[in-house]
Design goal:
The structure is a single chain. The protein is mainly α. The protein is 43% helix and 8% strand. The protein has 11 helices and 3 strands; from the N terminus they run βββααααααααααα.
Length: 275
């Protein structure tokens, strides 16, 4: 009788099916039962190599979790619903959903995340370019998918983020030539003499964060440029709460409007006393 193998010791044997089999203990499953991974090959050296690879991942703590991995489409839905929604603003999250539904899911949504290969992403990017999308649009989709796969790799759902192995299309960026401080002052002084002064100021100075830091904080320029204090973002309808039960009235009834007293303008905005 062969001696009992110690804990975490792998087993290699030749099966009746003509294949060599290897079984490696990786840990325990969520229900407490042993997590035994199976590998098979035609030759003994091949199966031993596969067993050593599993043992190395186990010893380094890099082994993926034992569970059936979701598809790219399923993981993207989980990522956007439970993870990205906690950090992104509604407008940004809406853009993530749009590129996921229109580009990522149709292009690679059926692949399991642990079976996704760089070739799959390259084919998806090529199809997007052939459909008329700009390279910048493809790069945005690549960044969204890469971020989702990064989270999956961090949680040991996959062994590697394949998006880091793919080079997205290059973007032809136009080099900007910002004004110097003297040129900016001369421009503002010339624009102030025109009736469309504010149109020129808004067109050149907005958004303010795109201006060089030395111009945004230059003495005399900050007072001449408009200051963006508040910003209004259009949210998609799916982010708005839906009324429950009967429809909510958006306006009071006509008879209620007629009988309600109107506010006195003098009390809302008191007029200054005249001497």
């Amino acid at each position: 009788m062969s001696p009992r193998k110690s804990n975490l010791e792998s087993t290699i044997y030749f099966g009746d099916d003509g294949w060599w089999h290897g079984r490696v203990t990786m840990g325990v499953l969520p229900d407490g039962s042993p997590d035994r991974r199976h590998r098979m090959a035609r030759t003994e050296p091949a199966v031993r190599r596969k067993v050593r690879e599993l043992e190395k991942l186990r010893d380094e703590g890099c082994a993926t979790k034992a569970a059936r991995k979701p598809t790219v489409g399923q993981w993207m839905e989980t990522y956007l619903t439970d993870i990205a929604s906690l950090k992104l603003k509604p407008r940004s999250l809406d853009g993530y959903w749009s590129k996921t539904r229109n580009d990522i899911v149709p292009g690679a949504g059926k692949h399991r995340i642990d079976k996704l290969a760089p070739e799959h992403l390259e084919q998806m990017y090529r199809a997007m370019l052939d459909a008329g999308h700009a390279p910048s649009h493809v790069v945005k989709g690549h960044r969204i998918l890469s971020r989702a796969l990064k989270i999956a790799h961090r949680r040991r759902m996959i062994g590697e983020n394949v998006a880091t192995l793919v080079d997205p299309p290059s973007i032809d960026e136009t080099e900007t030539n910002p004004f110097t401080q003297e040129e900016a002052k001369a421009f503002l002084e010339a624009a102030a003499k025109r009736p469309t002064f504010m149109r020129w100021i808004v067109g050149v100075g907005m958004p303010l964060r795109t201006l060089p830091a030395e111009l945004r904080h230059a003495q005399g320029l900050q007072a001449m440029l408009p200051e963006a204090v508040h910003q209004v973002l259009r949210q998609a309808r799916e982010h708005l709460p839906r009324p429950q039960g009967r429809r909510t009235r958006l306006h009071p009834p006509q008879d209620q409007e007629e009988h309600e007293p109107r506010a006195d303008p003098a009390r809302v905005h008191p007029l200054p006393d005249r001497a």
